[in-house]
Amino acid sequence: MTTTSTATAAQTHEQPRPKRSFSPRTSFYLMVAPALVLFFVFHTVPVIQGVFYSFTDSPGYGTFDFVGLRNYLALFTDARVLHAYGFTFLIAAVATVAVNIIALGIAIGLNARIKWRTTLRGVYFVPNILAILIVGYIFNYLFSNSLPALGEKLGIEWLSTSLLTDASTAWLGIVILAVWQSAAFNIIIYLAGLQTVPTDLYEAAAIDGAGAWRQFRSITFPMIAGFFTINMVLSLKGFLQVFDHIVALTGGGPGTSTESVALLIYKGGFQGGEYGYQSANSVIFFIVIVTLSILQLRFLQKRETSV
Amino acid sequence: MTTHKINWWLTALLAVLSLTILIPLYFAVVTALKTPDQLGGTGFGLPESLEWSNFRTAWELTRFPTAALNSALITVGAVVLTLLTNSMVAYAIARNMHRKFFRGLYFYFVSALFVPFPIIMLPVAKQTALLGMDNRAGLILLYVVYGLAFNIFIFTAYINSIPRELEEAAAIDGASTWATFWRVIFPLLAPMNATVGILTCLWAWNDFLLPLVILSNPDSATLPLVQYVFQSQFQTNYPVAFASYLMAMAPLFLVYVFAQRWVISGVVRGAVK
């Protein structure tokens, strides 16, 4: 406790400041106390409440009864819920793969010896600062009016009706918006990664006669494996929560064919009187997200060390 | 293969690909300047005359000044409070990691990274309403609290790299722990403060879900929320809708145009630690 004694001893030299007379140790506890309380009240308590209500038939107001595991059992036979999970996985998987391929390609381009690099980098980053919901409304108009008009002009049959009104193509519109918006972030992270690769490695490889693809496989990719892991994990986690995109493009329709899990929890919990039921869905969703994140992290980190 | 030669083919390719970003934005601008009867076809053509009145209509219809003020207030509030509090909590944790309590606290906060908001949104909405916090102040508080998980994570990593000698010197000079933090450590955190500030700003300004489930009074609606609320009225007049979208995106876009490098490097530091 030497620091305590020197601090208090030193403080006696100053003018008396009764409020500042805490020992460093007390001060540290006081620094974290409000955050701890607020975090507990606004994060941990809701988690506990969610788990609690998942065992009830609460509609979100008034009285409720305990129903044991009935909500959980019902979830697994509810076609709407199962479809929402399937749809969310589809969007998340396709968007994660697409966004990482596109972003890595563009980042490699931006890292090469090109003209106007700063300007181009600035342009590619723009979507990251725009609200998904608002961009989504603009894309909604493009998908439902401009593209069909273009399709008709060019005589392309499948393009001449709106992507979004057909259950079998609406997912594509959602993926396009998701990729457009989040490629920006991934490009910038890959670019940061590429700048850590020493250029003389490429020069040496070129002298050894390695082609562009060989250089990418043997130098670039292994060197930025860590950045690949970051991007894959963050993308998947972000896309699993897809919500704004769908609100702006389809509202979950046609019917309920483009509902994601987050949208279903929102709709059922706030508007459908399924507070207890959707709380159980949230618990399952939590387990799914944690499991997927851990599996993905394990897999990618194993790869990182092996390549 | 010389290193000084500019690759013009690649430059051209990247410029063409960047049109995928620019065309939707161009489209939004020309649409916002048309009259409804000019809309037909693909809509990519330039407007025949510039209908600036669309912006005035959108301004009055959505009560843009109110919504912009709400967004600004919430964003600034969230950024300032996050920087002041989260950095301090991280400092206390980083300097006491050898104590069980603080190490536990670190993992307690950071584990929230695994709990996406949709999972807790039902009880959170109910609870904030119950506590009378379904308003702008409540929303600011939630951004500050929910930011803790990620911010503690990157602040502590950064604080660990700051040598303790500076603080020891300050303590010998008679500075209290608080004064040491504010006068010595906080200024040193400038790069991380920039990162956390930028990320919080982008989050709070563009967020839709949290305002949607928390704010109960239409007068406190933020800009994205207003676009959602007015959808049914926008359907009858797309140029006005697009004028409204542009006005909602403009403030942050202008900031970005002038502080581009700074914003990008801030975001990168956040992701790469």
Automatic annotation (TrEMBL), chain A:
Residues 1-12 have a biased composition (Low complexity). CDD domains: TM_PBP2 (cd06261). The chain crosses the membrane at residues 28-52, 84-110, 122-143, 170-192, 219-240, 283-300. The keyword Cell membrane applies. It is found in: Cell membrane. InterPro entries: ABC_transporter_permease, MetI-like, MetI-like_sf. Residues 85-296 form the ABC transmembrane type-1 domain. It comes from the Bacteria. It is a multi-pass membrane protein. GO terms for biological process: transmembrane transport. GO terms for cellular component: plasma membrane. Pfam families: BPD_transp_1 (PF00528). Its main location: membrane. Residues 1-21 are annotated as: Disordered. Keywords: Cell membrane, Membrane, Transmembrane, Transmembrane helix, Transport. PANTHER family: ABC TRANSPORTER PERMEASE PROTEIN, INNER MEMBRANE ABC TRANSPORTER PERMEASE PROTEIN YCJO. Belongs to the binding-protein-dependent transport system permease family. This is Sugar ABC transporter permease. It comes from Kineosporia babensis.
UniProtKB/TrEMBL annotation, chain B:
Belongs to the binding-protein-dependent transport system permease family. The chain crosses the membrane at residues 7-29, 72-93, 105-125, 137-159, 180-205, 238-259. It is found in: Cell membrane. InterPro entries: MetI-like, MetI-like_sf. Residues 68-259 form the ABC transmembrane type-1 domain. It comes from Kineosporia babensis. It is a multi-pass membrane protein. This is Carbohydrate ABC transporter permease. GO terms for biological process: transmembrane transport. The keyword rRNA processing does not apply. Pfam families: BPD_transp_1. GO terms for cellular component: plasma membrane. Keywords: Cell membrane, Membrane, Transmembrane, Transmembrane helix, Transport.
